[in-house]
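Lab notebook, design round three. We kept the backbone fixed and only want residue identities now. Task for the bench partner: fill in a sequence for the structure below.
Input structure tokens:
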């Protein structure tokens, strides 16, 4: 069941990561349903579900789950309560198949998003056989308990008979004592016999007391005067009153007194462990008339404790969570408990008088068992981890503790073994180890394991005065594969890359995926640069070969940075840093090549690391501010909107151009922080314009791909609008074409939600990417911004004019607004307005300026 649960937990993630979800759903062997929560209608069923229920997929999809589930609504609600109380992550229902068979099933369900709707994704597991086994095990336990109760009853009956015989004997002795006493008064011979009888009574192990008809004591032997019997023997009142107070059967006691019949009972003296076995008999005179009573008392406290201990031991043995196995000195199994059956699959009948070899997996060696026997002989105990095999052949791990029991002569009499199933823990430990040390996508060593192996290799190289080479590999063009073919195809390419590296390199070489499209290779060799060159060439050749993906070919190359020990560094961190610098140099030289580290590279890499640190500090210390560049409507002579442009004022370097830090911010994952700052402040500024100007402009904000793909992006937009009070139709979000290329469901959903809010979407730098009419028709896009590369020479470049006119004509046909970027000359502006593009952005009208200067321009044009 944990496997089902883990599958159920992680499978919905594929809905977003794998475009082949429906194929996986239909072909999977697990019984799966997609159910509409409110109506219970089955929206989708896979082939495994059709086979299980005996309906076709179409027939199932015309039914509701209530037509299959035999539970009433009240029973369903009660099962949900039971699952919650028992902390189960599944429900147990009764489902009916098309053939009329009734199956007991475990249903695991979670909500998922599918085709724009929230459905219940359910995995159904048949547990009918399991439930039958549990019922049989319960019946077996019940029969066993009845047998135990029957044996205890027989023992009690035998004990009662023994006591009855014993009491009868005592009665005879008492009668003889009384008779001798009577004869003693007559003759000295009778006195002699009376003395003997008295000695017998006095030395009796039982307490003997005689009373008159009212229950007052007229005789008691010495044993009855002991502290244990003091509560009765020292009483000044009638013993009958004492007995009535102590017994739980006072009615039977009174009936015995009135009918002259014996009375027997077990009574507690008011203390937890003090118990008496009481026999009361009437004494008759010569005329057969009642003359008094004799009370015979026995201490049965230990017997009661033994009975209790026996019950407790039996209960613990039966109900213990740990498996218990008792063997004789010849290692033959004499008894097992229920937990043993649950863990191994063997019931007691199958293992009694057999040796524990029945569980052997044959994975432990002879020395292992020899050590176990040695520990038992020397210390009477052994414990440790062992792998055994269940009845069904499945291997499992157990923590086993064995104790040797010895008799009074010191000889081993028996062995008691206790063990618990630790298979789940072992699997979890292995999983944790795998997750901590290996990349889940490629199976290669991850950064953690690679660093550890690198450290060990360095230590060995230092001891042996040998040579190490580190190759830092980055895939050129991988982002393009992700953007054009999708992330799932990108993952496939990474997996194939790992395979190619493994096949290209030696087994002694360490290969790692450090993250993303970065790999590292550690090579131990002699100090021969030529050999490292050859390895780098082989890697580049292997990676440059086209990749066969699902529906297309993928093309990437490798930029490789190389450092060596001991030439370039003495520790892991230094060598990794310098290899990274060499890799960036390889990319800068045109990609698909390799570079050995040089000091010049280190200097450039250090500058980049410094900029990264300063950028993070800038975010923490709020060193950013916003300039605004108007988008001018030349047709109406007003400012249509303003684009918010982030600026960084460095405390010592002054103004840092966005060209120097935006790409780095995206790489290190802080672009979202900067984007949220710009969005929040731009909306607040634009909201003030709405209050001050009747014909107020909108505000245009650039959104990075990383920021757009965050799960909380829509919430961030809503919050900015609500906090600022800006009308949503005055907010324009500028995105790049690459966001639309992938055409995934999340992108469509995000853009649709923005459009429903009233927010406008503009495609920035249109024409420079993978421009396509298909995605412009599919997505809710409102504006296109023609890239400045088309505008810079448009007044005399025929090709730029043709392309720009085509973009304007296409936009008009799709009812999209067109904005021209980078307009700096009057001739450019006139050509654009003449070509029916009146929205102009560039230095011709205004450079990016601060909010105060923007207000002056708005007062001039929009009042």
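Proposed sequence:
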């Amino acid at each position: 069941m944990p496997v089902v649960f883990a599958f159920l937990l992680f499978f919905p993630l594929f809905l977003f990561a794998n475009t082949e979800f429906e194929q996986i759903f239909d072909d999977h062997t697990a019984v799966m349903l997609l159910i509409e929560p409110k109506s219970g209608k089955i929206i989708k069923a896979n082939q495994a579900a059709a086979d299980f229920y005996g309906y076709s997929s179409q027939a199932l999809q015309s039914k509701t789950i209530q037509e299959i589930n035999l539970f009433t609504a009240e029973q369903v609600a009660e099962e949900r309560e039971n699952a919650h109380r028992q902390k189960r992550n599944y429900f147990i229902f009764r489902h009916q198949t098309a053939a009329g068979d009734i199956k007991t099933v475990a249903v695991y369900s979670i909500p998922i998003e599918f085709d724009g709707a929230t459905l219940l994704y359910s995995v159904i597991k048949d547990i009918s056989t399991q439930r039958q086994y549990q019922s049989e095990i319960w019946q077996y336990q019940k029969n066993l308990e009845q047998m135990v109760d029957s044996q205890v009853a027989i023992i009690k009956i035998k004990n009662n008979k023994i006591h009855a015989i014993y009491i009868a004997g005592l009665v005879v002795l008492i009668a003889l004592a009384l008779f001798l006493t009577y004869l003693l008064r007559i003759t000295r011979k009778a006195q002699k016999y009376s003395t003997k009888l008295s000695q017998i009574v006095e030395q009796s192990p039982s307490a003997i007391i005689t009373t008159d008809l009212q229950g007052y004591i007229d005789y008691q032997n010495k044993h009855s005067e002991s502290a244990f019997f003091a509560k009765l023997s020292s009483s000044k009142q009638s013993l009958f009153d004492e007995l009535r107070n102590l017994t739980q059967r006072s009615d039977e006691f009174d009936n015995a007194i009135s009918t002259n019949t014996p009375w027997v009972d077990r009574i507690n003296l008011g203390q937890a462990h003090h118990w008496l076995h009481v026999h009361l008999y009437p004494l008759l005179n010569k005329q057969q008339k009642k003359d008094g009573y004799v009370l015979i008392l026995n201490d049965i406290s230990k017997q009661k404790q033994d009975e209790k201990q026996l019950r407790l031991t039996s209960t613990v043995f039966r109900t213990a969570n740990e498996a218990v196995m008792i063997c004789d000195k010849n290692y033959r199994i004499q008894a097992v408990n229920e937990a043993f059956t649950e863990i191994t699959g063997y019931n007691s009948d199958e293992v009694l008088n057999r040796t524990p070899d029945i569980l052997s997996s044959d994975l432990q060696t002879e020395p292992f068992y020899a050590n176990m026997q040695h520990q038992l002989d020397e210390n009477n105990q052994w414990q440790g981890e062992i792998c055994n095999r269940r009845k069904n052949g499945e291997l499992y791990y157990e923590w086993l503790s064995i104790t040797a029991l010895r008799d009074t002569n010191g000889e081993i009499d028996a062995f008691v073994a206790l063990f618990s199933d630790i298979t789940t823990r072992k699997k979890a430990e292995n999983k944790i180890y795998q997750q901590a040390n290996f990349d889940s996508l490629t199976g290669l060593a991850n950064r953690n394991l690679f660093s550890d192996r690198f450290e060990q290799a360095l230590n060995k190289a230092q001891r042996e005065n040998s040579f190490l080479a580190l190759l830092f590999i980055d895939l050129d063009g991988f982002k393009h594969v992700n953007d054009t073919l999708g992330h799932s195809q990108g993952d496939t390419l990474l997996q194939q890359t790992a395979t190619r590296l493994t096949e290209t390199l030696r087994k002694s070489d360490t290969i790692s995926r450090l993250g993303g499209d970065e790999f590292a290779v550690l090579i131990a060799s002699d100090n021969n640069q030529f050999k490292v060159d050859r390895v780098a060439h082989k890697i580049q050749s292997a990676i440059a070969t086209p990749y066969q993906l699902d529906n297309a070919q993928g093309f990437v190359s490798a930029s490789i940075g190389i450092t060596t020990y001991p030439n370039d560094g003495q520790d892991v961190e230094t060598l990794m840093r310098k290899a990274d610098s060499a890799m960036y140099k390889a990319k800068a030289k045109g990609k698909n090549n390799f570079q050995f580290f040089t000091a010049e590279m280190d200097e450039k890499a250090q500058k980049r690391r410094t900029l990264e640190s300063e950028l993070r500090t800038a975010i923490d210390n709020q060193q950013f501010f916003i300039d605004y560049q108007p988008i001018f409507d030349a047709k109406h002579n007003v400012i249509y909107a303003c684009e918010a442009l982030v600026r960084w004022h460095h405390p010592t370097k002054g103004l840092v151009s966005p060209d120097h830090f935006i790409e780095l911010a995206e790489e290190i994952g802080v672009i979202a922080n900067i984007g949220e700052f710009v969005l929040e402040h731009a909306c607040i500024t634009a909201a003030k314009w709405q209050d001050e100007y009747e014909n107020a402009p909108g505000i245009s904000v650039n959104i990075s791909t990383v920021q757009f793909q965050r799960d909380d992006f829509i919430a961030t937009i809503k919050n900015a609008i609500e906090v600022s009070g800006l009308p949503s139709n005055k907010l324009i979000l500028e995105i790049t074409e690459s966001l639309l290329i992938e055409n995934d469901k999340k992108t469509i959903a995000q853009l649709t939600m923005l459009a429903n809010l009233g927010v406008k979407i503009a495609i920035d730098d249109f024409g420079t990417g993978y421009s396509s009419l298909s995605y412009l028709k599919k997505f809710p896009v409102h504006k296109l911004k023609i890239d400045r590369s088309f505008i810079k020479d448009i007044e005399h470049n025929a090709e730029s004019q043709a392309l720009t006119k085509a973009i304007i004509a296409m936009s008009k046909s799709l009812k999209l607004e067109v904005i021209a970027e980078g307009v700096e000359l009057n001739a450019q502006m006139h050509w654009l307005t003449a070509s029916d593009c009146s929205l102009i952005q560039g230095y011709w009208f205004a450079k990016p300026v601060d909010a105060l200067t923007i207000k002056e321009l708005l007062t001039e044009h929009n009042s």
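Keep this in mind before ordering anything: Confidence is low (pLDDT under 50) at residues 1-11, 13-19.
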